[in-house]
Structures are given as structure tokens and as C-alpha cells.
Design goal:
Elements: E1 2-7, H1 12-22, E2 27-33, H2 42-45, E3 67-70, H3 76-83, E4 91-94, E5 104-105, E6 108-109, E7 111-112, H4 115-124, E8 127-129, H5 133-147, E9 155-161, H6 176-179, E10 184-185, H7 193-204, E11 211-217, E12 224-231, H8 236-246, E13 253-256, E14 271-278, E15 281-288, H9 292-306
Parallel strand pairs: 1-2, 1-3, 3-4, 4-8, 7-8, 9-11, 13-14
Antiparallel strand pairs: 5-6, 9-12, 10-11, 12-15, 14-15
Helix pairs in contact: 1-9, 4-9, 5-7
Length: about 325
């Protein structure tokens, strides 16, 4: 049994992490830190956990833990590690973007935590930079092609995400009255997750395509749908075989010829991928839950690998269905 601490536990990713870890057979939650909610029952902020835990949010952390999850937000994670010298035995999993390009701090070097790409390194790591949600869905949809240098043209990507991707703090674009029955683009060709995607693609191939990514805000709460397409003289059967071979030993990423629906992956740690060939173009659809495979579920998957547990421990989650 290992002990886990959570910093920034009152947000969406913190709440998902608590839900998963409460049902993890190998983990005990030692503390859940929240500066704004300290002293309150966790179930007062995450009301679906009523009856699941009597834990309260606390203001301060301690070192009697084995792993620390940082859900503190972009920039705050780096500040936390600058201001607090953690005991050397504590492993760190950061869910922000602060260390995704291989940065180090206080002698801690971070490994990019995409298990389908860096599983061996994650198993040996003490510090993990958890990938971004868009970055996870995009990379899983394209890794088999990029690794074989089969994407050498312009790469067109569109992706739509639920409102929880914007975090728990309200903004003009996350209010229900603005988001419902609405759709809009943002950060066209400039989304911050492109940096980590290109960084990893360069590790796989010398032929990194020009990526043209258009993100959309969707009128729903959870999930990401990515559609990528590029010119490729490759038959659908050959392409499917490449993908199936690449992901054959990955417990959460599945290639299918069935039509996809976002609800298939919501509330799960799965990624579903579908390939189509239309004329000269190969079209790849990849879907995930932005809060689980795109954040907290993947963080637990990384923790499992770091501590030698079965990769899927605590993550056999069921989709809600229709």
C-alpha cells in the first residue's frame, strides 16, 4: 500500500483523482490540499463523493507519502516545487504543462508521461509530466504513422473539447448560458499543446509535418474528439495493420472500424481510434475523456507503472452508456 498526496484537490482533475484513488486497491490518500477549501469535507466540493469518504481538505502537506500529484494549474506547479523542498523518496506526477518539454527543477528531471510512447522510461522515472488532454488524443491518433515517417505532408487536425477542459474557475466562455447550444474556435494554429506534440514527434522522426490545428469549444462537459487527416498513398487495410501492431500491448488504446461515439469513452481511461481512407487522404479519428485519459486517469496509469503495479489497476472504469 502506498500513500498519495494531492495538491490542488478542489478542481476538476483533483476531484477525478480522488474518485479513482478511493477505489484503488494499492493506494491510501494521505491528504488533499486546497488553499481555498481547507477545512471543508471533500464531499462538500465534490458532492458525488458523499458517502465515499470522510476526508477533509487541508491547507498544508507533509512528507509521509510515496507520491505527490500536482493538480495546481499551469505555473503553480513550478512555483510549488521552487518553494518546497520535497523529500527525495517522494515521486511527483505533475498534471500541468510546466515540465512537458523535459524541464527540470530542484534536481528533479521529468519524463513525459504518455505510456503508449514512453512506458519503459516511465517505469524507471521518479517524476512525471502528465500530457495535456488535446496532446494525448492527437498523439495517440498519429503515433503509428509518425514513427514510420508516414506523415510527411501538411497535417490537418480539428478537435472539439468539453467545457471541463477549461477548468473549474468560471470564465466568459465556460458559463453554461454561453456554452450550451454554441460552438466556437480558439487559439487556431497556436494551441499550447502543439509544443509538446512537436517535441515528441521530433523524437520519433526527422520528418515532422507542418501541423495545422483548429481547436473548438463544444456544447458538452466531458470528452475530446480529434479528426486528423493527411495525404498518404496507403491502403486502409495496411494502415489498420500498422495501428493494430503499434497498440497491441496497450490496455487502453483500441483501434476499431466501427463508427465512433464520444459516449463510448466518457468516464473511462480509454482512447478509441478509427481509420478511414477517402481518395488520397487517410482520416484518423481519436476520442478520449479529457479529465480521465486526458488528465487524472493517465496520471494514475503513470503511477501504476512507476510503482510496478499492473498498468490498469484502479482504472477499469465503465462508460455511462446511452
Amino acid at each position: 500500500m502506498i500513500k498519495a498526496g494531492i495538491i490542488g484537490a478542489a478542481g476538476y482533475t483533483g476531484g477525478e483523482l480522488i474518485r479513482i484513488l478511493l477505489n484503488h486497491a494499492e493506494v491510501e490518500i494521505a491528504f488533499a490540499v486546497s488553499g481555498s477549501q481547507a477545512g471543508k469535507n471533500i464531499s462538500a466540493v465534490h458532492p458525488d463523493l458523499l458517502g465515499e469518504t470522510d476526508l477533509k481538505f487541508v491547507k498544508d502537506f507533509h512528507s509521509d507519502i510515496d507520491v505527490l500529484f500536482l493538480c495546481a494549474g499551469h505555473g503553480a506547479a513550478k512555483d510549488f516545487l521552487k518553494q518546497n523542498k520535497l523529500a527525495e523518496h517522494i515521486k511527483v506526477i505533475d498534471l500541468s504543462q510546466d515540465f512537458r518539454l523535459g524541464e527540470s527543477i530542484q534536481g528533479r528531471e521529468f519524463i513525459y508521461g504518455l505510456p503508449e510512447l514512453f512506458k519503459s522510461a516511465i517505469q524507471q522515472a521518479n517524476n512525471i509530466a502528465n500530457p495535456g488532454c488535446f496532446a494525448t488524443a492527437i498523439q495517440l491518433g498519429l503515433l503509428p504513422m509518425v514513427k514510420q515517417a508516414l506523415v510527411n505532408d501538411e497535417l490537418h487536425i480539428s478537435g472539439i473539447t468539453g467545457s471541463t477542459g477549461a477548468g473549474v474557475s468560471l470564465s466568459e466562455t465556460s458559463h453554461f448560458s454561453w456554452r450550451v447550444n454554441n460552438i466556437s474556435t480558439y487559439k487556431t494554429f497556436e494551441h499550447q499543446h502543439l509544443k509538446e506534440i512537436k517535441h515528441n514527434f521530433r523524437k520519433l522522426s526527422n520528418q515532422v509535418p507542418n501541423i495545422l490545428f483548429v481547436p473548438y469549444r463544444g456544447p458538452f462537459t466531458r470528452g475530446i474528439w480529434i479528426t486528423s487527416y493527411f495525404k498518404r498513398d496507403l491502403g486502409i487495410d495496411e494502415a489498420t495493420e500498422i495501428y493494430q501492431n503499434f497498440y497491441q500491448d496497450q490496455p487502453f488504446t483500441h483501434v476499431t472500424q466501427q463508427e465512433l461515439d464520444l459516449k463510448q469513452v466518457v468516464n473511462t481511461n480509454k482512447c478509441f481510434i478509427r481509420l478511414e481512407k477517402k481518395g488520397e487522404h487517410l482520416i484518423v479519428s481519436s476520442i478520449i475523456d479529457n479529465l480521465i485519459k486526458g488528465a487524472s486517469g493517465q496520471a494514475v496509469q503513470n503511477m501504476n507503472l512507476m510503482f510496478g503495479f499492473d498498468e490498469s489497476t484502479g482504472l477499469k472504469l465503465k462508460a455511462t452508456g446511452f
